[in-house]
Amino acid sequence: MSARTSIGLPRILATLLAWLLVACAPAPDTDGKGDDSDTADVVDSPPPAVVCGDGDCTGTEDAAACPEDCPATCGDGACTHAEGPAACPQDCPATCGDGACTHAEDATSCPGDCLGTCGDGACTGTEDAASCPADCLGTCGDGACTHAESAADCPDDCAADCGDGACTHAETAVGCADDCAPTCGDDACTHAEDAEACPDDCPAGCGDGFCTHAEDAAACPEDCPKDCGDGACTHDEVYTTCADDCATTCGDGACADDEDASSCPRDCPAVCPDAACTHDEDAASCPDDCAAVCPDGACTHGETHETCPQDCPDCPGGEGCPRGLDARPVPSGCHLDGEPDTWAYEVDPTPFATGFSFPVDVLSPPGQPDTLYVVEGPGRVISVSRRDPAVRTTVLDVAAQTAPALGGLFAVAPAPDFATTGHLYTSRTIGSPSRILVSRFLVEPPVGGTANVNKGTPVLVVRLDGAANAGGPLLFGPDGMLYLAVGAGATGGNTAQDPRSALGKVLRVDPGRLEAGLAYGVPADNPLVGTGSTCGACLTEPDFLCDTPCTEVWASGLRNPRRCSFDPDGRLWCGDVGFASWHEVDLITAGSNHGWNCLEGSTEITTHAPEVDCDRTFDEAVHAYPQTPGATGITGGLVYRGEAFPDLKGRYLFLDAGLGTLTALEHEEGVLVSTRVIADVPSTIVAIAEDADGELLLVDRPGGTLLRLRPTERLATGTFPDTLGATGCYADLPAGTPADDLIPLDPRVASWADDATRRTYLRLPGPTATVRAPAGLGALRRAADEALDLPVGTILLQELRRPRPTAGDAPALVESRFLVRRSAGDWDAYTYLWRADGSDADLVTFATTACLDATPPGTPEACQRPHEVPAAPTCLGCHTAVAGRTLGLRPAQLNRLQAYPGGDDNQLRVLDHLGVFDPPLGALPVDLPAWADPLGDAGLDERARVYLAAN
After folding, report:
1. Structure confidence at residue 622 (pLDDT)
2. What is d(CA 167, CA 160) in angstroms, rounded to the nearest whole number?
3. Which of 232, 260, 300, 545 is in Cβ range 3.0-4.6 Å of 280 for a Cys bridge?
4. What pLDDT, in 10s, does the model give residues 241-264?
């Protein structure tokens, strides 16, 4: 396995926070009942039904709906829906750590009780649309103005309704005075109030993290930072620094860049002659101010290259200049019709088995090939017959001793000799304090029997402080040892690099051999044996650290391992959920260190705590993919060993619930060869598993079903061009010359390409096709960073060319990528990888790698500039609808010179002349916004903003 580059010690202070601390220790009496059971005090029960008048105020009732059931009676010892800590403090106290998020508590005061859990279908206090889009997504037209919606996005839901008594998103005190009127002294700083009018309600408190009415960036810079492009004109922003946020307003007494005397006569009056040629003046209206004096060395408003070539030598982009293109090119035969031949699969809509309660995993117990064990998150294991899934029994029920809110029953691991011993191991969460508990139960008889929950033997305990990043995979290896993967917790992962802690680690123990004071033994070949001691009870203490390295540790540097499995060759694979940049597929080996929180994927983290030692090498992930919008988290899978899908044999399969994808990873000796999304799956799929024959099962948690995979009917269409030459999009393929009707379009700020260069081309679907452009100069200024709306049938081509210093080097072209607009909301992406001899390029079906070196070496390992060549689904992971799909096609990005057959000309000017924009731009490019050069002289904030936007 190759190693990552070492990272130096200097770091920025740690700011990344999460919630989980871990501990491991034997706990023969975890509930204090004096026996060997592991009964805990957290019980999960279903919510009661809504029945008004039954005298019971249930979870879905309140005083408004059921006043007879839910009256507010302060002092009765019960905190009902009609009461709160302000009205009835004696009934509604905040009790952090009780597992319930009460009226008086929130995620700030009681994070363990009120933590948001992405994907649970509820948008809680700690969640928003950015962190949990699946839970907090705005749905226009649902009648509710949610976190992710505003009056601009969803006017029907967030409309201003003056007189309804509520001051909504779309209302202000100016528009709806009755709803948003100031009421000084009510302890609320409303729209109509500020610190001057209501000082008691709107005080300035620098350092509180809120930019209130009484504060600005000068007084409270830490509370009121400038953030250009966020759509809000804050206290310290003005039009000159944040034009997109602070659009001009006629009547404000200032003649801004996008105003003139026609649009804002009071702000921009024309005064002829005043010796100044202002926005609303020109040589025709004010000849004395705007006269063309050739040559005077200045190119004034009344002069052009045509009238004053001495004063206006830079012709490109100006009036009177020759056009780079006089007419639209004649359409060629460039096409990407149909669909590629593919290994395509889909979820069989007919469930294999159904009727389970929040299943999280399924497995085949040793020695019982006709039986499946279904693991239910609330705390049950159900035995199901493969021959007749309706035949089932409950093998284990520990729901009364499990805390589902913290994770529930993570995993079940039958011992290798389960068929004779009946030993069944579980990994689950219990409460007060919250812990992962690994227990051993006895199933009697092993075939068709059940387990006595009162005779569970605790084996290992790992302490938590919440449900964040708990980990929890539990499994036996081919060596007979028991492996437990533990997440780094909410601490940000600072202890994932500390060998004295179990956090962020894979632990390996021998449950069949007991050591003094422990319910397990430590294998002699564990990597830290000889450097420390067993963890024991110290990991149950609040500081979660032992005095010496923990010999139970097998591997480290994980953040949130979600599902692990051994392949037929005995290698341990885990899917590790990233924090902000990358999700990983890791091969876990003895002593391996996977980087968290010094590295995430291949990205260096600079916000870890100073005490974390990152001056070391780390083991590379087999595969890491970016956290693009929707990629909410990887769920590790398995190496397929069945017979139903020969094309998938030996490939590692993993899920991403946010993307709704099932991906196949091809590898050789654990080294990535290619990846490809092979099926779209519902976001409710939480696990991929196998039966005794190695055939696949998908677990739908909220649906309570087990599903199968099946091939689609479009395995081979035979119609889509599988080579670049077959597309007809190149006039001269060996020379790499695109067809004549592909118009070159290059952005001002190109994305980073490791010394390679990118070239972009646009092909419109017909001679009269148009692109939507914002109407008018002022509108275009405010929408300069918005993606252009391209017509259906548009083809975009982007080439990647390697550096080519000499003629003897490899062909310049590396890949040609296409984006094709199929319908109003549907785009497809395709990549063609050029052959080594440069004769043609082949359609990429599995993501692979290429070398950008001018002279690629003979072996991939020697490449100095490796480059990932994506398959279609990977492209659309970045080219999202939210990002405008095309990414680079924005007016401010295209406002630059381009080489055309007729000479250099501005791209916007050429497209406008060709009638591409509807409505026309109506302005010269010199009068329109343009992105700054990241290496130029613009301000650092602006240069950093455009660089990050392009990358």
Report:
1. 93
2. 8
3. 260
4. 565 565 556 655 556 555 655 556
- 59 conformational bin, left if phi > 0, alpha if psi -120 to 50, beta if neither: alpha
Instruction: Give the DSSP letter of residue 875.
Output: H
**Omega within 30 of 0 (cis) for the link into 351:** no
Find the DSSP H helices in 381-440: 418-421
Cα–Cα distance measured from residue 73 to residue 307, given in angstroms and rounded to the nearest whole number: 87
Position 857: which residue type?
Answer: P
Residue 75: band (very low, low, confident or very high) from pLDDT cuts 50, 70, 90: low
d(CA 468, CA 126): 12
State the average pLDDT over residues 490-511: 85
Q: How far apart are CA 489 and CA 465, in angstroms?
A: 8
Rounded-to-integer distance, Cα 122 and Cα 144, Å:
14
Amino acid of residue 155: P
Tell me the residue type at 479. Answer: D
Tokens of 885: 């799909």
Core vs surface per residue 425-453: b (16+ CB within 10 A) or e? bbbbbbbeebbbbbbbbbbeebeeebbeb
Whether residue 433 has a cis bond before it, omega within 30° of 0: yes
User: Whole-prediction pTM value?
Assistant: 0.53
Say what the alpha-carbon torsion angle 8, 12, 16, 17 is, to the nearest 10 degrees. Answer: 110
Residue 130: CB atoms within 10 A of its CB come to 10
pLDDT at 440: 96
User: What are the contacts of 826-834 at 24+ separation with CB within 8 A?
Assistant: 827/876, 827/879, 827/885, 828/336, 828/872, 829/872, 829/873, 829/875, 829/876, 829/879, 830/336, 830/340, 830/872, 831/869, 831/870, 831/871, 831/872, 831/875, 832/723, 832/724, 832/727, 833/869, 834/724
Structure tokens of 33?
A: 């009942």
pLDDT given for residue 151 in this prediction: 55
Q: Which amino acid is at 157?
A: D
> Is 486 strand, coil or helix?
strand
- Average pLDDT of the chain is 76
Q: What is the reported pLDDT for 404?
A: 85
Better-scored residue on pLDDT, 842 or 250: 842
- The 10s digit of each residue's pLDDT in 627-670 is 766 666 899 999 999 999 888 999 999 999 888 889 999 888 87
Q: Decide if pLDDT at 387 tops 80.
A: yes
Query: 241 is written with which tokens?
Result: 């620094």
Torsions phi, psi of 759, nearest 5?
Answer: -130, 135
The three-point CA angle 185-191-193 to 5° equals 40
